[in-house]
Request: fold
Amino acid sequence: PHQLVSLGFFLSRSQRKWEELNLQDCHIGDDGVNILHQCLCGDKANKKEITKLDLCNNNLTGASSHLIGDIISHLQPHALVLQDNKIGSSGATAIANALTNNISLEELWISYDIGQDGARAIAKAISTNKTLKRLLLCGDDTTGVESAMIIVNSLHCNNTITGLGLPVGACDDCVRKEIDKTIMKMYSVKVLYLFQCFQEAQDDVLCEVHSKSFDNGVIDISHRWLPPHQLVSLGFFLSRSHRKWKELNLQWCYIGDDGMNILHQWLCGDKANKQEITKLDLSNNNLTGASSHLIGDIISHLQPHALVLDDNKITNLKNISTAVTATCTVKVLHMNNNNITSHDAVAISDMMSCLEELNITNNKLGDHGAELISKGITNTKTLRALSISGNKVGSSGTTA
Reply:
């Protein structure tokens, strides 16, 4: 509590606009929310905005509901994360009341075990709210399936929500298929967040229905740790899909080299359907040089137009370079902040013959590496953008 008071004092005196206040897993409880509320909404608080407020996993109950609603009204956040709490129907009702006249909130994460009364309140608020774009109902048991269905059924005529996350994994086959049919009628939904659907996703019919549900062909599972069993389910889903995907976003999923091996088996193995993914984002996944040959194989099979591998520890680019030059489909390659050294410079130079955009900033090329890739720069006829800063390139490398 005393640290919350200090935080609240700091925020109450702050004169700036904050992009995010992240209190995830801080276990502040209802008493902590009360302290936070006094500092953020009390008489001594400065008027301010916080773009994203994350109160995930803080042991909050319905007793905090009116305080949370008041905080929403005062701070006008664009994103509010309340999953993994126990706010119940009273908390959901308070949030719904705050949403009714809210003109700022665009993204809401909430546990779906809010009871049918809470679900009806949320459903009613959504019918009049015109700013909410992403709604994610989170959880992993069956207690909130009916609540989820109430909210889903209220979205038939919604034209603003473009991203929807659902607890499909907690449902039996009949309920899951009913949810899928409802989603397919929602023409506004462009992205269906899958990470709540993985546990029971190994169902051919469900996978086929899901593949029809993504209006613009985007699978976004970013910023979510994916353990091996969920990667297997994702792989199963992709292997059964018969459509062309515009994007597969696994940014910040921390899959590691072992996870990359699982993904490779499903995307490139005997059971995989031939498919294309226009953009593949694997940034910030703890990948190393051990995954290089797998990434090269995935490039050959999926033939993406854009590949993002930022913030990993990848080195030994020979297999990646071979795949890029052999297919000539990858036009955009980002490998910012990896372990790329001068030993990889020849591979980079070769790839420039096909690429239109290359970002290799914040690596370890040095002068020798810069001199080697200069040949690729000289010979390329396609490259339009090259980012190479942060590579400890001195005068000789710059001259080259």
Q: What stands out?
A: The longest strand covers residues 18-22. The two ends are 59 Å apart (CA to CA).
